[in-house]
Amino acid sequence: MKAKTDAADVLSMYRFDRLADHRVPDADSITEETIRKYHELGYVAIDRVLTEEEVAAALRDIDDVIQGRIVGPNVQFYKKLEELNADPAFHTPEGREMAVRKLHKYADYCPALRHIVYHPKILHVLRLVFGEEPVFTNEAQALLKPPSGAGMEKPWHQDMAYRNFAYSKPVAGVWVALDEASLENGCMHVVPRFHRYGPIPHYAVRDWQICDNMVDVENDAAVPLAPGGVLVFHGLLHHGTPPNRSNKRRRGPQLHYHGASARKLTPQEYKLIFTNEMTNAEC
Q1: Distance CA 101, CA 145 (A)
Q2: Please, are residues 203 and 233 in contact by the beta-carbon 8 Å criterion?
Q3: Domain 16-274 part of CATH 2.60.120.620
Q4: Beta partners for 198?
Q5: pTM for the whole structure
Q6: Residue percentage of the chain with pLDDT more than 70
Q7: What are the structural domain ranges in the chain?
Q8: Mean pLDDT of the region 128-134
Q9: Quick one: pLDDT at residue 266?
Q10: φ, ψ for residue 127 (rounded to 5)?
Q11: CA distances to 149, 156, 187, 250, 256 from 59, in Å
Q12: pLDDT tens, 155-193?
């Protein structure tokens, strides 16, 4: 299959006319029916989890990492560092922010972001989802989408296909909106119920991703969130985010948890499930 590379091709992988409807106003509103629907659909959106003060503190942590005031977390740029250093704009605060794609491994360095990792309301939801104590996987990320076309797509994928997310019991992803996450600036998109079909091979195309022709775009549902809102989703749910086409930032931590009794797959088991090595198939 020919890889999708231009903007129109990439946008064709998403619907912008259907919104996900499994949503509750806050963590205290979750019921047994909420959890039943989570297991059926593979996700639940929770509108008010973080306070305005918690959101503001987390944004300060992110800015402090980007600008070098907090040292320790890993910073991934959109381009090679030597290329960026040759651009005078990169040496301004705004230019540096525009160049950052992802932060990760920040929980030990950023107090406000660490607070989100162990936020009591998030852990409460996860206990209900797992039916046991949640355990943080030690993989704290923040995928950033700068404005004006700089924020790139994260193609459709399953989180359990990434590194230490492969467990025999499901992982849950938690995506936290620190800015408004809208249809225009790259909010999360999901395909409800597709976690129930199990793991599928991933391919290195635009990213480590589900092959484009295996994505059920027809059933895509977008999940806009206001600042402080949270999306909790099954580690096998098909999900992705389109590019940021707006003039607004879209920043948010993404965290992963598993139940206390989960067993990690061996490398051999992982290869049999998530890669195409057994068939030599290509995307």
Answers
A1: 7
A2: no
A3: yes
A4: none
A5: 0.94
A6: 96
A7: 16-274
A8: 97
A9: 86
A10: -60, -40
A11: 21, 26, 17, 11, 20
A12: 999 999 987 677 788 899 999 999 999 999 999 999 999
